[in-house]
Write a structure and sequence with these properties.
Elements: E1 28-37, E2 43-52, E3 57-66, E4 69-78, E5 87-88, E6 91-97, E7 101-106, E8 113-121, E9 126-127, E10 131-135, E11 138-158, E12 161-165, E13 171-180, E14 200-208, E15 213-220, E16 226-234, E17 242-243, E18 248-253, E19 260-267, E20 275-286, E21 310-317, H1 321-324, E22 331-339, E23 342-353
Antiparallel strand pairs: 1-2, 1-13, 2-3, 3-4, 4-21, 5-6, 6-7, 7-8, 8-11, 9-11, 10-11, 11-12, 11-13, 14-15, 14-23, 15-16, 16-17, 18-19, 19-20, 20-22, 22-23
């Protein structure tokens, strides 16, 4: 047993020290996610920092899409006893005011990306519905997440260009999630190998407008059954969020691909007037390329990288055919959202992997 500074706070949930979580599942994780954009196709920055207590690892990444540049800086170290230490090499996250203000830093490094940014929430942080998925007898997802839209202050430096970040232009969203999801080194599939292509149909769209936000989630399985959904309109003053009913998602794809060119998300609030939000993607960033979300066999979230701190950089130029061909998987796009309630901007995250009723008879590779 090893104590840590967090043990001096009255926050224990199980009869154990705080460095030990309440489950022995290797896939337990605790993670920050942030995105930052200028409400245009200028730049998209995505930052994540996670802890994996049962794997003994903490890691972080930053992904910037800037013109044709797709660049990732990533770092990993052993977690150690102190889970209050949210630094991973040049990365750190500081909670300045819980659920309201945070500082996110990538200090000087050899990989051409750094930033010092302060987040301020524009709406109260919202607790999303539980995310639970069981594959045969194995629990694959059992997690919770809070979500928030907000604005940024600070600066971002890419190579020799430093961009001032001011809250009038630079918006974004963040989430904090914790629980169980696949992380670390691949596990032997066992009987799960019989379900090699279960399908993953996903939309996550936190939309920020001048005086409110809309938070929308939709996940369906290969048969089109809903696994997870959320649709609420949230105001900064803390009034009760408005439930917007069951969201309906209608994307249009580029020919021969599953790249969304535009979409409509329809809402039908109980007792209210139905309305549509038109989605226009502005700048796509392929979240899974280089960041640790599962494509690279040598760098996955929670994967042990050795006893010493490891910091790496990965850069792709999307003007090169071979680099553009690497861009596959989950897309986190800056997007414009239009409806009668105003014009907003935010994250449009989507992925359509494998079979789904939408693609009946479609032989397109996902």
């Amino acid at each position: 047993m090893t104590l840590s500074p967090l043990d001096d706070h009255p926050v224990h949930q199980v009869p154990d020290v705080m460095r030990h979580v309440g489950t022995s599942d290797r896939n337990f994780y605790d993670r920050y996610y942030f995105n930052c954009h200028s409400r245009s196709d200028e730049l998209m920055l995505i930052v994540g920092l996670g802890q994996y207590p049962n794997l003994g690892v903490t890691d972080a990444f930053a992904l910037v899409r800037y013109g044709p540049l797709h660049r990732v800086v990533r770092a990993s170290r052993e977690l150690g006893a102190d889970r209050m230490d949210t630094t991973v090499g040049p990365f750190r996250v500081e909670v300045l005011e819980g659920l309201k203000r945070l500082r996110v830093v990538l200090g000087p490094n050899d990989h051409g990306l750094s930033f010092d940014l302060t987040w301020e929430g524009a709406i109260p942080a919202q607790l999303e519905p539980p995310h639970f998925v069981r594959a045969r007898e194995r629990v694959v997802f059992d997690s919770r997440r809070l979500a928030q839209t907000g604005r940024w202050t600070g600066s971002i430096t890419v190579d020799d260009t430093t961009l001032p970040v001011t809250p009038d232009r630079w918006w974004g969203s963040r989430d904090r999630s914790w629980g169980i999801r696949p992380v670390g080194e691949p596990e032997p599939p066992g009987i799960q190998a019989k379900d090699a292509n279960p399908g993953f149909y996903w939309v996550y769209a936190p939309m920020q407008f001048e005086d409110h936000a809309i938070l929308c989630i939709l996940q369906e399985d290969a048969q089109g059954r809903r696994i997870l959904e959320e649709a609420v309109r949230v105001w900064p003053d803390g009034r009760e969020p408005e439930y917007l009913g069951r969201p309906d998602y209608r994307p249009a794809y580029a020919p021969g691909t599953r790249d969304v060119t535009e979409a409509v998300i329809a809402f039908a609030p109980p007792g209210g007037e139905p309305f549509d939000v038109r989605v226009t993607p502005l700048l796509p960033a392929h979240l899974m390329v280089g960041s640790g979300y599962g494509l690279e066999p040598d760098w996955r979230h929670g994967m042990y990288q050795g006893p010493d701190l490891k910091v790496q950089g990965v850069t792709y130029d999307l003007r090169r055919t071979e680099d553009a061909a690497r861009m596959w998987g989950m897309v986190d796009s800056v997007a414009r959202f239009d409806y009668e309630g105003g014009v907003g901007h935010g994250l449009f995250e989507y992925w359509a992997l494998g079979p789904h009723p939408t693609f009946a008879g479609d032989t397109t590779e996902p």
